[in-house]
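Ticket #4471: complex job returned nothing on first submit. Input attached below:
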Amino acid sequence: MVMGAIIVGVWALIFLFSFLNSFNEAYLRNAINYEYSHIQVHHRSYLTEPDVKFSITDKEKMISALSSNSMVQAYSARQLVSGMIASSKANSGVMIYGVSPADEAQVTALDQQLVEGDYFAEIKRNPVLISKKTADKLKIGLRSKVVLTFQNIEGEITSGAFRVTGIFDSKSPKINESVIYVRQSDISRLVGFEGVNEIAILASQLREIPQIEEDLRREFGEVTIRRYNIVAPEFDLLEQQSTVSKQMLTTIIMLALLFGIINTMLMAVLERTKEIGMLRSVGMQKLRVFGMIIWETLLLSLVAAPVGLMMGFVTNLYFGERGMDLSRYAESLKEYGYDSIYYPSLDNSAYYILMLVVVVTALIGAIYPAWKAIQLNPLEAIRKL
Amino acid sequence: MSMPVIETIKLKKVYNPDKIPVVAIDSVDLTIEQGEFTAIVGPSGCGKTTLLNLIGGLDVPTEGSVKVADTQIGQLREAQLTDFRLKHIGFVFQSYNLIPVLTARENVEFIMLLQNSDKKEREGRSAELMEKMGMKEAMDRRPAELSGGQQQRVAVARALASRPKFILADEPTANLDSKSTESLLDIMSRMNQEENATFIFSTHDHRVIDKARRVITLEDGKITSDERR
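Support reply: We reran it on our side without changes. The output follows.
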């Protein structure tokens, strides 16, 4: 019974940890790949006053530096304009991303998120990519004409007619909700200003992010450089929530295991009262009886825990390769930026830590039964039926 | 006969002294010498088992003292008393009390293991005892595979394994049939002779009483007769 409880408990923890990890990793991956990138660079004043006029002053120099930096996988310079999109039937507030199509595709894989149309092709003048959600809101489709209204660099309201050439379905809910993409050259012409307000950077490796930041800070003092977890504090929150969830799960399962061990070992002591009485009578010291119960529990955990770990490992191998399909909940998961298929994985260190936690739990669980065993009066114990 | 192994002086045991006192042993003065084969007899409730428990250090007297060899066992602390039992006293219980997961031989060796004897000594002594007990063929069987008589023989071998000063046997034949009783008594008698082992039984089995060379009769916690044969 103790072994069964340990096996199931350890397996369940491994599975839950792995699932939580894959859940968080998927969110982080989607948010970075489709929304935030690893690093964002803005004009110092843009974050407090998001006006198109606050553009990155050393744009050319920065782009040149990024192009020659081997740690940078891709970057996209964007002109960000806040405005309205209107069809003949409805309108909506949007953030207009004026981008270089080729660069943006490298950073956010926008070209691969199209569900209809082409990626800035066919129509030569003023193409716009909108999300499926925006298309539904405006009750428009491919090749529909929309009017974008915004302030130009002089602060005057200006408009431009655009043609929907593509409809995308991003894995980022925020992008789906309020972002549309146009060519930077088109929006610059209408705004009357060619500057960029944001440069999104993807690093080749996560560990290279600090070095890229440092290089940029050293060379460009007049900009704000922020990492994805600063841009979106929910990353850290998610990480903390995940850690707390894992700790709570471990505590709950280990508590259940602890009481299971105490109960089972108490039963074992009760069933062996006579035997323990005999051992004490013939001269076994209390400490040795205590150690015997502890050792017995420890052995059970040392046999059971690796079995549970192995089962968890095999489960992870299976689902890590085939994925856990949660398509049934795809719509609601997508709303929060999650995928519908998950590939559970767990660091090797987690297996060692769990092994240690189980052994410690077993040891703690054995203390009370062992103490009860040495409290038995040999004479009374030996008379038990 | 030689030196005294056990000496009790004014030994008294009263149960429930504060509520309804029951005097189980009442001022018993008793001396048992090395190599004796003694039966303590008497009707049920006369105090036979209590006397054995007091001599064996499993129970604490209300008054009086128990001296084993030169040691006043009442003056020993619990751990010392446990160690004393391990080294100097052998126990044979009415219901055998063998460890079910160990073989007959392992049950015998286990006492020596507690005494930290080395493997060679354990194996040699257990093999010798199993042979003397007529258990050579069955020594690798577990208790569940042995008859009651065989189990009690293993229990006697276990009691003898550590070469104790004396062996206390509480109703050792109570659960045995005539044939097994006869066989066990023969073995114990032989061990008494060959190993000069001191045996003290509590019993009301006449076959045991007939074999004993000293019969002490208890009534109401007092020795009423002490007959040497």
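The longest strand of chain B covers residues 4-15. Closing as resolved unless it happens again.
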